[in-house]
Design brief:
By secondary structure, this protein is of the alpha/beta class. Helix content is 46%, strand content 7%.
Length: 403
């Protein structure tokens, strides 16, 4: 592709306005997790926006209209591509942005432009489309093993039901205690729920979307939506924030119509069941808990209170907060598929949360995201062996032990 071709094809009119709005005030630098562990301003949010604006000006600006598009140095494009893929897409920069740039949606579109130019994605991210197409998941694991290692024997799963449960790929293959806890809690609530077969439930599309690889998304989304509709689903529940974000924000445009069911994060459904008396807590814990807000749950879809309302109901639990929590929470390091390529960054970011949880005296670090569960667990292995031990636990994993 000629480097002089338009850089704005993947952007909405609103995103073009956002690019122009950046005041380079630097407020976002205080919250960017990649900046926290690298201090590399060349990959900071304002610098990425400045460079991309420069690309647009060189190819579509006033000067280019009179004298023709300017040549952009290929090395500069390659450096930009690396910077935009090193981002965890956590959206903390946008949350802090003084002019309201919605960066959690902007960065994937800039990545899409890099894919269009053959400059992304990086490393194992490139293998995601082939893996999803062949196995239905981004890890390339056998589709038939999607549920086999964690789905409890004897669990009643209806063929058709108004309530559907989607496990998701990371939960099913890398964070099994989470999804086991999900279905155990759903079973206790007692409302009939259905699931797709192991070979039928496929990736929600988020790993493809977030890496800018859109080719398979329309077919993937239509396949899943129609499968749940055939089973009579009116509410689809999932515990993965990335999946919930993808389903609620991006499934409708890729499906081409309003979804025939509503999307709920499992904490929303369970909090409502507790409020309505359909689920009761019979046990308790004497532990001090600290809850980590996932980026795509808090900043992505605005769910922060439901997980806390569940944890506060557990008798004997003492709930702490991180200094940055709710919509201001720090990324766990796993976001945006960056963990697949920039492993050291991801581990360093995760350990910032581990360190704070230890300092505050928590016994357990409570998570509500399979990517967080996997990466924080990895970061904790062998880390601070002489420090006070802290364990990670998923919120449904914890709840399933006290109901």
């Amino acid at each position: 592709m000629p480097e002089s071709e338009s850089f704005t094809r993947c952007l909405s009119a609103g995103q073009l306005v956002e690019l122009d709005a950046c005041a380079r005030c630097g407020e976002c630098l205080k919250y960017c997790p990649v900046q926290e562990v690298t201090s590399d301003k060349s990959i900071s949010p304002p610098e990425k926006i400045r460079l991309f604006r420069e690309f647009i000006a060189n190819t579509e600006g006033l000067k280019s209209k009179f004298f023709g598009p300017g040549k952009i140095d290929r090395r500069l494009l390659e450096d930009f591509a690396k910077a935009v893929y090193e981002c965890t897409t956590c959206g903390a920069c946008g949350q802090a942005c003084t002019v309201g740039i919605f960066t959690q949606r902007l960065w994937p579109m800039l990545r899409r432009e890099m894919v269009r130019r053959g400059l992304g994605p990086f490393g194992s991210q490139r293998e995601t489309p082939a893996a999803v197409e062949k196995t239905g998941n981004p890890y390339g694991k056998p589709a038939g093993e999607r549920f086999s290692s964690w789905l409890p024997a004897g669990l009643k799963i209806a063929g058709r039901a108004k309530l559907g449960y989607y496990a998701g790929c990371t939960g099913a293959y890398e964070a099994q205690p989470m999804v086991r806890g999900d279905v155990e809690v759903l079973g206790k609530i007692g409302e009939p729920f259905t699931m797709l077969d192991a070979e039928e439930e496929a990736c929600c599309g988020f790993p493809l979307f977030i890496t800018g690889q859109f080719e398979l998304l329309e077919g993937l989304v239509k396949r899943l939506v129609d499968a749940y509709a055939r089973r009579g689903v009116e509410t689809l529940v999932c515990s993965c924030p990335c999946c919930v974000n993808m389903m609620s924000r991006d499934w409708p445009p890729f499906y081409g119509a309003k979804l025939p069911f509503r999307i709920r994060h499992i904490t929303q459904y369970v909090a409502a069941a507790l409020d309505g008396g359909r689920l009761r807590i019979s046990g308790g814990t004497g532990e001090t808990l600290i809850y980590h807000d996932p980026c795509y749950l808090s900043r992505g879809v605005g769910i922060t209170e439901e997980p806390r309302s569940i944890l506060r109901r557990i008798p004997g639990a003492n709930l702490l907060e991180f200094d940055r929590h709710g919509a201001q929470s720090r990324c766990c390091g796993a976001g945006g598929a960056a963990r697949k390529v920039f492993h050291d960054n991801a581990i360093a970011i995760a350990r910032l949360s581990i360190d704070e949880a230890r300092r505050k005296g928590a016994h357990r670090l409570v998570l509500s995201c399979p990517a967080c569960y996997s990466k924080v667990g990895e970061a904790m292995a062998g880390y601070g062996e002489n420090e006070r031990h802290i364990r990670i636990v998923d919120i449904m994993e914890l709840l399933s032990g006290v109901i």
